[in-house]
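ok so i was messing around last nite and threw this chain in just to see what happens. nothing serious, just curious
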Amino acid sequence: MKRIIFNFCFVWLAVSAFAGSKVVEMRNYGLVPDTHENLSPKLQKALQDIKSQVALGDKVTLLFESGRYDFHPEGAAVREYYISNHDQDNPKTVGFPLEDWKGLTVDGQGADFIFHGRMLPLSLLRSENCTLRNFSIDFETPHIAQVKILESGEEGITFEPAAWVKCRINEKGFFEAYGEGWSSAPQGGIAFEEKTKRLVYRTSDLWCPMEGVKEVSPRVYHAPQWKDARLKPGTVVALRTYYRPAPGIFLSNDKDTRLQNVKVHYAEGMGLLAQLCENITLDEFSVCLRGDKDPRYFTTQRMPLIFPVAGGRLILATGCMKE
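result:
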């Protein structure tokens, strides 16, 4: 009898809001911040349960507490999407698959959503009058490998990867970055001034050949084929490929969507892509670093924003866009 009463109370706490305020506290579904556990399975179950109890005309707010939430590919949703201007490598692994909603608000209250592996963090499809607000999106291990030039000359370039970069020399003798379920052997990059984080003058996309690279000391590599006189010692290079599987946020076939106080700190594609949408408001939406002390020099692989075949009004309030 006690167990039955407990279960009843749990369900009532989680969804009683539908009878009144329509606010769902995600903590009641086990989505608690700062545990560092994989919350993907709990999030998928919560979204399914909540959606099944939404009546026509309900306006629902999913309320998270401030803090860090970790989402891994295991237990996440799997979807097939056509995402314009990205690689069509379906299926996609999706953290927040929000589909066919009306009057939905996702309020992070300052939540920091951290994704692992290779994922599409958030999708909103075929929805109306929805709001995403008060959260940030980032990845634990970005797919861009940031390195610092130690020596540069006729014998090649010696470089040191940033502390968070997981790297190795692969079986073909190339420098390779890797993470949870992915690996990447970059042959290109973008150069930044160490102190200002500005692009190195008169450089754009760099060719960074990595054939025959050697690890000359722990986490220090020498690339004999990589030669570029513009890259002085101290220069920081974001090594990357041209692969872009997914943006940070994907909107498609939506109407009257609002993003408020949302930050994308990293995505393997673009920051926000909204295709076939009508009426979008971006209020304090930013694609940006984590402040002046952020050790990273990059945000997204490609453009911060893109709106393929969008119509109606596009309202851009305050925000910051840094690729």
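not much to say yet. The longest helix spans residues 2-15.
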